[in-house]
């Protein structure tokens, strides 16, 4: 029954699966054998007993259903016993992580390009998660990449498409495919973690919110949890129907792409809380009435208050943040007497720490926050934790932020992205920067003097694996810093990310303008890296 497709002349011309799996234009994925070779490479290298369970789901973007049908036939030919697939081909990234863990799957394929736009001319992506529910670690993605370079055949069975909209079981070859409710398990998990009664009470006393699902995957989850289970008014969730092209927008919950939400929250008709999530549901944006909370601050504020939520009471073991994320969380860890870990960018680096119980909450500056409840960052989880804290403390987002800064001080923070720049120019910039590292300490850039500069390398505290070249850090004597990194998730040219940070103690200016506070760091970054000289760009495309 197994059919072998040989592809001797079209070896996989992929890139290293980056921070989050493989991302390319849809047209690239539509080439004959392209997605198949990648999926087969995964099946060839990942550990799994014969007859294993595989989870498949995606964010509903264009091309989702086609790849799911092909992946199902290939799973059958590769000896899987059962595939669990979300109804309609839908599973948010955190929901997929939960399904993998809950049903003891050997892994899962998550089809998404996250916050990248969707549609026939836009982006698609495939990512493999391992049995703990988290993104495959570098040892696995490295093996997948090596396999893609030599693959010469993929296996499939001849079978009709499965009806992805009809819940229930179908046989495909010797394998069983079960179409599952994508929302129920996840919503139940959230109800176990948080004090839904307290939130419901706040809602009935007039607490209001808007959740912008950005026409991406979280719509059905948000409607079920926020409107049906927590009692928020119908219409609280906007853009709640997943669309194949996300309505033509970037499903990226930041101040640029969620501008409408931002404007609402800064205006006279703002509800108490504004929130949004990205294409695949793992990111979150939090805006209070008149108060935007940076993701780095959100991590620190959630960590400081996490024990308010029932499932976390008395069990904050540690905090982890990615290197470019601000050090706001470090101050909370210090005050609470728990360890703080600094990892490279990408959720896969949190997996071992979470599995070993070394940390309970983790986060990234790119709007990702999560905990040990799954092994992915989780957008709605962060929104619910905020809701739980605000409801129990009976406090506004703005008040909470001010109280936090008055205790811990404030880390002013911004990220400047230079998108779709020439790949060679970007590589040249990083190369030059790296070569100059040793000469930087002691040099002055305006009012700032460099105290330390390095290329970030990380040794995993659990398996001792080493990851090098994870970004250039330049620290200044006043404790501020700039960080330079090239994105691993773009699909066009290169994206340079410049991360800027400055700490202001509790006795300092706690309500100043971020752009003004970071002026010296912005100028220093330009001078140190020669951004304009290398890229021809005078200003960043996106500031978050
Ligand atoms: C970006 C973010 C990173 C995040 C990654 C995946 O990576 O900076 O923090 O983990 O996206 O997020 P990069 O390499 O482009 O900077 V998602 O929401 O795409 O799964
Ligand atoms: Co995402």
From TrEMBL:
Q: Name one GO molecular function term.
A: phosphoglucomutase activity
- UniProt GO BP: carbohydrate metabolic process
**Where is the Alpha-D-phosphohexomutase alpha/beta/alpha domain positioned along the sequence?**
15-152, 185-287, 296-408
The record lists the catalysed reaction(s) as: alpha-D-glucose 1-phosphate = alpha-D-glucose 6-phosphate
Cofactor section: Mg(2+)
Question: What family name appears in the similarity comment?
Answer: Belongs to the phosphohexose mutase family.
- NCBIfam families listed in its UniProt record: PRK07564.1-1
Record protein name field: phosphoglucomutase (alpha-D-glucose-1,6-bisphosphate-dependent)
Starting at the broadest rank, the lineage of the source organism is: Bacteria, Pseudomonadati, Pseudomonadota, Alphaproteobacteria, Sphingomonadales
């Amino acid at each position: 029954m197994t059919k072998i497709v040989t592809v001797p002349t079209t070896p996989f011309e992929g890139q290293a699966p980056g921070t989050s799996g493989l991302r390319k234009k849809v047209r690239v994925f539509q080439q004959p054998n392209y997605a198949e070779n990648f999926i087969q490479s995964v099946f060839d290298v990942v550990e799994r007993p014969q007859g294993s369970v595989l989870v498949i789901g995606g964010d509903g973007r264009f091309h989702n259903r086609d790849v799911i049908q092909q992946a199902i036939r290939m799973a059958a030919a590769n000896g899987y016993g059962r595939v669990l697939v979300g109804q309609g081909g839908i599973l948010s990234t955190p929901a997929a992580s939960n399904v993998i863990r809950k049903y003891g799957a050997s892994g899962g394929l998550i089809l998404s390009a996250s916050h990248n736009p969707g549609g026939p001319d836009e982006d698609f992506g495939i990512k493999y998660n391992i049995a703990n529910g988290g993104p495959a670690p570098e040892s696995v993605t490295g093996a997948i990449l090596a396999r893609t370079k030599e693959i010469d055949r993929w296996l499939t069975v001849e079978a009709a498409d499965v009806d992805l909209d009809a819940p229930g079981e179908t046989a495909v070859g010797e394998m069983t495919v079960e179409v599952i409710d994508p929302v129920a398990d996840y919503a139940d998990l959230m109800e176990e973690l948080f004090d839904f009664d307290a939130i419901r009470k706040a809602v009935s006393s007039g607490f209001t919110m808007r959740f912008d699902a950005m026409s991406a995957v979280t719509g059905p989850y948000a409607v079920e949890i926020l409107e049906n289970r927590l009692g928020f008014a119908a219409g609280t969730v906007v853009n709640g129907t997943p669309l194949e092209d996300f309505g033509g927008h970037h499903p990226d919950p930041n101040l640029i792409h969620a501008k409408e939400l931002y404007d609402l929250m800064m205006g006279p008709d703002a509800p108490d809380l504004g929130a949004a999530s990205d294409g695949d549901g793992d990111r979150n944006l939090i805006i209070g009435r008149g108060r935007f909370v940076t993701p780095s601050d959100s991590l620190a504020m959630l960590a400081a208050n996490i024990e308010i939520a029932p499932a976390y009471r008395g069990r904050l073991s540690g905090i982890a943040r990615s290197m470019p994320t601000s050090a706001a969380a470090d101050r909370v860890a210090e005050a609470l007497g728990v360890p703080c870990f600094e990892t490279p960018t990408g959720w896969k680096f949190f997996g071992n720490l979470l599995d070993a119980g070394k940390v309970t909450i983790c986060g990234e500056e790119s709007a990702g926050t999560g905990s040990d409840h799954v092994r992915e960052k989780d957008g709605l989880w962060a929104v619910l934790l905020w809701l739980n804290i605000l409801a129990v403390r009976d406090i506004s987002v703005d008040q909470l932020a001010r109280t936090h800064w008055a205790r811990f001080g404030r880390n002013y923070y911004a990220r400047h992205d230079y998108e779709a720049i020439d790949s060679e120019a970007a590589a040249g910039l990083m190369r030059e920067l790296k070569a100059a590292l040793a000469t930087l300490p002691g040099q002055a850039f305006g009012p700032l003097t460099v105290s330390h500069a390095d290329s970030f390398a990380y040794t995993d505290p659990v398996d001792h694996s080493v990851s090098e070249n994870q970004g250039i850090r330049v620290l200044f004597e006043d404790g501020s810093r700039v960080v330079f990194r090239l994105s691993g998730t773009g699909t066009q040219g290169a994206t340079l990310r410049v991360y800027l940070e400055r700490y202001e103690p509790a006795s300092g200016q706690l309500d100043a303008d971020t752009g003004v506070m970071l002026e010296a760091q912005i100028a220093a970054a330009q001078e140190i890296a020669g951004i304009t000289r290398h890229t021809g760009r005078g200003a960043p495309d996106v500031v978050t």
